[in-house]
Predict the 3D structure of the following.
Amino acid sequence: MLICLPQVLTVAEVKQVRTLLDAAGDAWVDGRVTAGHQGAAVKANQQINEQSEVAHECQRIIASALERSPLFISSALPNKLYPPMFNRYSEGMGFGLHVDGGVRLHPYTGDKFRTDLSATLFLTEPESYDGGVLQMEDTYGMHSAKLAAGDMVLYPSTSLHQVTPVTRGVRLASFMWVQSLVRDDADRALLFDLDNAIQRLNQEGADEAARRTLTGTYHNLLRKWSDT
Ligand code: NI
């Protein structure tokens, strides 16, 4: 399931993160430092050093924004969030087709982290740069995302994806992974559909006993499919 989450960050939060990143200086490093063998050969961008104070400050802003997003919670069913990272593509930079590593080491705890979902949170307005389109391939073909600053796209980490070369301007974004309570994308999509349908029935005050059964079914499926 590929889903766009509008306005994860407010205009003020985008500005705050942008200001921190624009002043980050030496904390910007070659993006290949975190790429695996497959990724390093096709990756050309810059990233904020995960150990820097600016990374920590920006991570706090994004993590708390995601915690208050009902759409993020219901679609990702997050168990753990990998600390958000930040990248910058200037003219001529891009990131060719690759699949993200299946298991990463958490940068602070060293714990193993299974990447179920990949996310990109856009931090620059789309009209301020050319190229820099995130393209993701699934069984239905190639999908493109170039969203407004503050919006996020969430997609299965199993997807082949790329960032097309930037040909004008600068593209700033945050990217991160989610280890979901429900690792299987199809199972998670069923729960998301069921949750949305229940919310609608609740809003319409539909038959109470039927809603109770559906809500019970939702939780019993979540219990059956979740690992923690
Ligand atoms: Ni990637």
Summary: The mean pLDDT is 96.
